[in-house]
Amino acid sequence: MSILDASDADDASVAPRPLPIAGDTGADGPVTALYAEHALALIRLAYVLLGDKPGAEDVVHDAFCGLYRNWANVADPAKALPYLRASVLNRCRSAGRRRTLWARRAIHEPASASAETLALAGEEQRSVLPAIRRLPARQREVLILRFYLDEPEAEISRLLGISPSTVRSCAHRALAALARILGEDQ
Amino acid sequence: MNSLQSRIHDDAARAAAQVSPADVPPLRLPPGRRGMGRRPATRAANAAARGAGWPRRNRSWLVPLAAAVSVVAVIAAVATAGRAGSGGRSRPAASATGHPGRTPSAAATGQAQAMLATEAVNSFFPATGAQYTDGLAYNWTQLKISARIFGSCMTRAGYPQPPFTEPEQSYQRSFADNAQFPDLAQRAATDSMTGLNYIRQTPVAPHTAAGHKAIRTCNAAAAKPFREISKIAGPLSNQWDDKFTAIQASATVLATQPSFAHCLEDHGIPASYAQHHWTRSTGLFAGFFAWMDTISQQATSTRQQAREEHRWTPVFVHCAGPTVHLVQTLQLSQRARFFQQHAQQIATIRTLAAALPAAGR
Predict the structure, then answer these.
(1) Closest CA to B26 of B44, B41, B47, B42
(2) CA terminus-to-terminus distance, chain A
(3) Residue among A28, A154, A165 minimizing CB distance to B195
(4) Could you report the per-residue pLDDT of A120-138, keeping only the tens digit for each?
């Protein structure tokens, strides 16, 4: 299943197949079970990508709601997890775009961070994650999937809907860009 | 895994660990039918949908990270940007620093340095597949120079490193970007969509404070020759990324997508793949790649996979041709304007690149 399928699941522009009433699909049990098993890992993935914990929780919660609504289309339970991961990646991308727009608007607002937040921000600044979040979405996703989750190229390729060689070149470009950003910041 | 990759892993894992099982909110599944109540658009609305009484958990991750600051914070000295397959250009022998047996002529050295300047510009600002491929030569040179400096430094510290042995052409063939900068000539010449596998060398040093310090120091030394050029070219390259991305997402370019899809169908690729619509993340040729992924997964051996690539690569070259031609024409024109607008910085990048030692090409 490609990432497109997952984004289509909540895209009103895509002609939906007739779906039964969600409650009639018997989805509650399986979706709840999936949530119990995978929500933590998915929230962690979203948090690494977004750097925003409430945002990460929302993204994952919405992904499960999307799965629930489309349960009839995910007949094979084995495909549910790839669907969820793709959905989380898509939603992180959208959330990132929204936040970027917001960040541009808010750039002149005075800083009012607490000492605790500043301490955390200092810790965050020493991490490579802020630099990774400055990369284009696909590069960011490839780096996190490859080096955080240790996913093989083939799986990343399937998940992002791109060819394995593009995964490789994307990771290559992302590492180069990351090194440049880190170099600039030093 | 090199040091930068390790750092990504460590930092991401450390960040992820801040989310504990207690942080997972209860799942509130939506009632009713699909379409009768779209998911809430905002976080506030979302929280409301979960129920007003749903408690926001304590932000336990806000507690400063008291422990576990990784020692391994080594930036990869050898920052390289990906480019694919060599265009088969022959290179003049150049200044072979560290190779006393060779004494290339001044003219050859000058020619090689000028070529390196062009390759650097193509590496940071590619407009065509061929330029993208050409730019990889700069990355390879950068890698080689860094490896030599790093190796000498580590040897002085008592940790000798294996020599850098990656051949330039093999390195270039490892990083095809078929989505953004398809090099159709290279695809046609190799009859393959995929590149080779480049395996990066990892530093050889003990996991001790002294070993880590040596790697850190030597990485910094190896990165030094490229610091200035990266400082100028990095931000400019990001701007260029925005330019070509906008071109590839433009209505003019997207208008070629139906023809591309029809061409794929004419060559036997099912419509369900060929009609795969464009998204910013999948790029212009998603239908073909989706098809190739399926074919690859069904192949029972690497030989069969190679046969499939051999069969379908010419289809890609043929069908993608008009789109690639249009995209490249627009990007070349945009690049010319971009270079005019940033003439001074481009000239500086060229000068800095040409001043790099040619690393024994």
Answers:
(1) B47
(2) 41
(3) A165
(4) 444 444 678 888 888 888 8
